[in-house]
Design goal:
The longest helix is centred in the first third of the chain and has 25 residues. The chain has one domain. It is α+β, with helices and mostly antiparallel strands. The strands form two sheets. It has a six-stranded antiparallel sheet, with no helix packed on it.
């Protein structure tokens, strides 16, 4: 009888611990919450990237030696993609041909920033993928306001 009661207590303790862990897993990372709060407060939020400190999505290799940043002017928040924002700009490629570059960013609730870059050459109808990278905060990407 005593063993059965002890096992019941142990079972309930394990159940309570797993429910507590599941609740914490649903909570966003502190950095995600800080960025979201800054955006909702109307602060001038910037992201600064060092892609060499990020890794490629497909192979986990270091990204290129490229640094950059942008001011987040518009964003959306969804349960699946977290905080998403983008930049599109026209430029010329290394051969002097006009292109439009698109860079999409998604900050997951876990606090990792995914950066996807693509470009469309003038007159083309399809985008060319330039890479997809995952950046840990604050090494590969940091948010400032």
């Amino acid at each position: 009888m005593q063993l059965s009661r002890s096992l019941s207590i142990l079972f309930y303790l394990l159940l309570a611990a797993s429910v507590s862990t599941m609740a914490k897993a649903d909570e966003p990372s502190p950095k995600y919450a800080e960025v979201l709060s800054a955006l909702h407060s109307g602060k001038n939020v910037k992201v600064i990237l060092d892609l060499n400190r990020c890794t490629t999505v497909d192979g986990g290799k270091p990204g290129p030696s490229v640094q950059g940043g942008l001011v987040i002017r518009a964003f959306r928040v969804t349960p699946r993609n977290g905080i998403s924002f983008a930049d599109a700009h026209q430029t010329v490629d290394s051969l002097g041909h006009p292109v439009t570059e698109y860079i999409r960013h998604s900050l997951s609730r876990e606090g990792k920033l995914t950066v996807r870059a693509s470009k469309v050459a003038a007159g083309a109808t399809e985008a060319v993928n330039q890479g997809e990278f995952v950046c840990e905060l604050p090494d590969g990407a940091k948010f400032v306001w």
